[in-house]
Amino acid sequence: MSNGNGVTAAISSAAGSVSDKASEIGSAIADQANKVMKAAKKKAAPTIKKAKAQIKKAEKSDTGKAVKKAVAGAKKKAAAAVKAVKARVGGAKTATKKAAKKATRKVAAKKAAVKKVAKKATRKVAAKKAAAKKTVRKATRKVAAKKAPARKAAKKVARKSAPRKKTARKVARKR
Predict the structure, then answer these.
(1) Taking a C-beta distance cutoff of 8 angstroms, is the pair 70, 61 a contact?
(2) Domain boundaries, the chain
(3) Can you spell out the DSSP letters for the chain?
(4) Where is this region: Disordered (predicted)?
């Protein structure tokens, strides 16, 4: 039995020949289309020249000049109308600009007020911290002051108890 290699080769060669033939036909059609286009342009060239000449002639004629004037007048009127509309819309814009400026001023004033309040609050907090530090310092001073007499008393007790021990030892030695 065959494993199909021969069939695959035959199909691939057929596909290759079909693609080659299609590209040949496409290039032939493109060449023919180019030839036809060139011939059409050659035949149309004189009529195009005549049409352009007639347009120039019409523009130079009295009616052509009148048309140009009418078009220019219409353009001026349209420009004036556009300016009028922009002026009206621009007036509205100036009003909105004024409102925007007022709003920004209000926002700036609010921000300034918030900053002032924040500064005051920080000052108060700083003052409270300073007062707290002062009270802590006072308390430590009081504690230190209380410790000093306690130390003195302890030293006195130690002094008093030392002689007693000596006498007790002496007594013990004597016995």
Answers:
(1) no
(2) 1-60
(3) ---SHHHHHHHHHHHHHHHHHHHHHHHHHHHHHHHHHHHHHHHHHHHHHHHHHHHHHHHHSHHHHHHHHHHHHHHHHHHHHHHHHHHHHHHHHHHHHHHHHHHHHHHHHHHHHHHHHHHHHHHHHHHHHHHHHHHHHHHHHHHHHHHHHHHHHHHHHHHHHHHHHHHHHHHHHH-
(4) 120-175
Q: pLDDT for 63-108, tens place per residue?
A: 888 888 888 889 888 988 888 888 887 765 566 677 777 778 877 7
Segment 5-21 mean pLDDT: 87
Compute the distance between CA of residue 174 and CA of residue 168 in angstroms, rounded to an integer: 10
Tell me the mean pLDDT in the region 30-59: 90
Using the predicted structure, report yes or no on whether residue 166 has a pLDDT greater than 60: no
| 64 burial level (CB within 10 Å; 0-12, 13-18, 19+) | middle
Left if phi > 0, otherwise alpha if psi is -120 to 50, otherwise beta: which for 61?
A: beta
Distances (CA, A) of 113 to 70, 80, 99, 118, 124: 63, 49, 21, 8, 16
